[in-house]
Specification:
single chain; 552 residues; 3% strand; 65% helix; mainly alpha; three-stranded antiparallel beta sheet
């Protein structure tokens, strides 16, 4: 049965491969990228230990949703594992189960990249698609993202597919195909939002494609309405049939306060009470009455999670009392109830969640952050400009797989198979078994040495920062001066989406490796569109001019 289902997936892609066969260069580039990706996954078993990776695996294994992490990624792979009859592992570190997840991620990544390659060729041209495929498919950072139990790679590929579908609808002449394209793009983007909520950052930008379509206002209203209905239907079905049964919450997540308070200016809550607004004072007052207990931090799976009911009831009474106080009364209250020793602003949402409740504290945390943002706007603006200076999707230090030059706190052990080149890798300190907070780890603890050497050399020579900046400028100039109005508009939309996502990330937690993985597919499309436009400009302005006036 499993074999038959795999064959059906392969046959479904046959039409796409036939389209590729018409262009041998495009087919060759795709197959080359596919082989490189295959060897990467052969070299490194799937990464299951870094940061939140065990939480996503636990959601997948236990078939539950979450109030901290978006659950679209584990839910999707739960369905895939069921379709392919993959036996559930005994634990989240079951090697056979993890190997199946790695294979499915590789197949899905291949399919999504192929779809985007074909659509990019149809919307723009062959050169744009080739550049996109090379930048996206040969990014070691992105390959490491696909080879991990994390959702960022899937978010990036779904956002790219959504953009390309909208772009295809934008240039299409057929009304029927336009409507289907925009509606399908909206559904894909809705699922990208369920995979990770920061997809919402680029939604207003991508929506410009439909807004600026040359159709009538009534036609646009109809398509927007239809897209909204289909998107809401998907999200509501997800909440009703998967999220709510395990979390007991109709709201998808309650981690806003945790994330936003982590980004407050370091001394903001230490300012004199007279300089703070009322919600910030409320946050300080609540933090002064609940225990300083940060050990309750976890990926909360149910809205009822927290202190025992009688304890929560007692603190909830204090919460109601504090929320009724005026600003002057809060200032007086804080003079006799200062923040306790050991208080950490970045973690202050954790005990409040535990002792008071998720909805109340999340709403108050959002209000507190808004006050901090309005009172200190230059701090956040400076974060954006400082971040731009170091912006790079090809930073070797962000890659979460071990190299000999950066072993990620791993010991490269002896050969276990001299003929094939496999070696042991062991964490330097085995405090936990399995180790937690290890940047790379898999229970096999085996990697392929020739692959490590090859990808380390490959990563060192590909796309140095100066070259990436040169390519970015070349792409931007190509979009700006293109003679094709659609290329100018769609390239501008891409640039705005990348800038919006990056700027918002810098304001919050920064552009970590997670955010770069998410944005690489859109960056790759932008490079493809822009550099292809630059090539056309160069050809038209210089080559053709020289052809008309040959040198004597």
């Amino acid at each position: 049965m499993k074999l038959l289902k795999m064959q059906s997936m392969i046959s479904a892609k046959r039409h796409s491969l036939l389209l590729l066969s018409k262009n041998k260069y495009l087919a060759f580039i795709f197959l080359f990228v596919l082989v490189v990706n295959f060897f990467f996954f052969f070299t490194y078993p799937i990464n299951v230990a870094a940061y939140d990776y065990p939480n996503y695996l636990a959601m997948m294994h236990d078939q539950v949703s979450n109030l901290v992490h978006a659950s679209g990624y584990p839910a999707f792979f739960m369905v895939l594992l069921s379709i392919f009859d993959v036996p559930q592992g005994s634990t989240i570190y079951d090697i056979a189960w993890l190997n199946e997840i790695q294979r499915l991620q590789f197949l899905l990544h291949t399919g999504l990249l192929l779809c985007c390659l074909i659509i990019c060729t149809n919307v723009f041209n062959q050169l744009s698609a080739i550049i996109m495929c090379l930048v996206w498919g040969l990014s070691t950072l992105f390959m490491a993202g696909v080879d991990s139990a994390a959702p960022e790679w899937l978010l990036g590929e779904l956002m790219a597919l959504s953009f390309l579908l909208s772009a295809q609808a934008f240039i299409c002449k057929s009304n029927k195909k336009k409507i289907i394209g925009y509606a399908f793009s909206g559904v894909i983007f809705s699922y990208a939002y369920l995979v990770k909520y920061n997809a919402l950052l680029v939604f207003p930008i991508l929506a410009l494609i439909l807004i600026f379509d040359r159709k009538s206002v009534c036609w646009k209203f109809f398509v927007i309405s239809m897209s909204i209905v289909s998107c809401l239907a998907l999200i509501l079905a997800f909440v009703e049939f998967f999220h709510y049964p395990t979390t007991k919450s109709k709201q998808l997540n309650y981690d806003h306060a945790w994330v936003l308070l982590n980004d407050l200016p370091s001394q903001y809550l230490s300012l004199p009470s007279e300089q703070l607004e009322i919600n910030s004072l409320r946050w300080k007052a609540l933090s002064s009455v609940v225990p300083v207990d940060y050990s309750t931090a976890r990926a909360y799976c149910c809205i009822e999670t927290g202190a025992p009911a009688d304890v929560r009831d007692a603190y909830y009474i204090k919460y109601r009392q504090i929320m009724r106080l005026s600003k002057n009364e809060l200032i007086v209250f804080l003079k006799s109830n200062p923040l306790p020793n050991g208080f950490i602003t970045e973690l202050s949402a954790i005990p409040l969640y535990w002792y008071i409740g998720f909805p109340e504290i999340d709403a108050l945390g959002i209000a507190t952050f808004k006050e901090a943002l309005l009172s200190n706007p230059m701090i956040y603006i400076n974060k954006i400009f400082t971040g731009i200076k170091s912006w790079s999707t090809y930073d070797k230090q962000m890659i979460m797989v071990p190299f000999y030059s950066n072993k990620l706190a791993l010991i490269f052990g002896e050969n276990i198979n001299h003929k094939n080149g496999f070696i042991k890798i062991i964490p330097t300190v085995h405090v936990h078994n399995p180790p937690i907070s290890q940047l790379y780890w898999n229970p096999q603890e085996v990697v392929w040495r020739p692959g490590i050497l090859g990808f380390e050399s490959f990563t060192s020579i590909i796309m140095p920062r100066w070259m990436e900046l040169l390519i970015f400028v070349g792409a931007m100039l190509g979009v700006l001066f293109s003679t094709n109005a659609s290329v100018r508009f769609l390239g501008f939309v891409l640039l705005c989406a990348i800038a919006t996502f990056s700027a918002a990330s810098y304001v919050l937690l920064g552009m970590r490796f997670k955010e770069y993985i998410s944005i690489i597919p859109l960056v790759a499309i932008f490079y493809g569109v822009g550099l292809s436009a630059s090539h056309n400009i160069f050809r038209d302005v210089f080559v053709l001019k020289i052809g008309r006036h040959p040198i004597k």
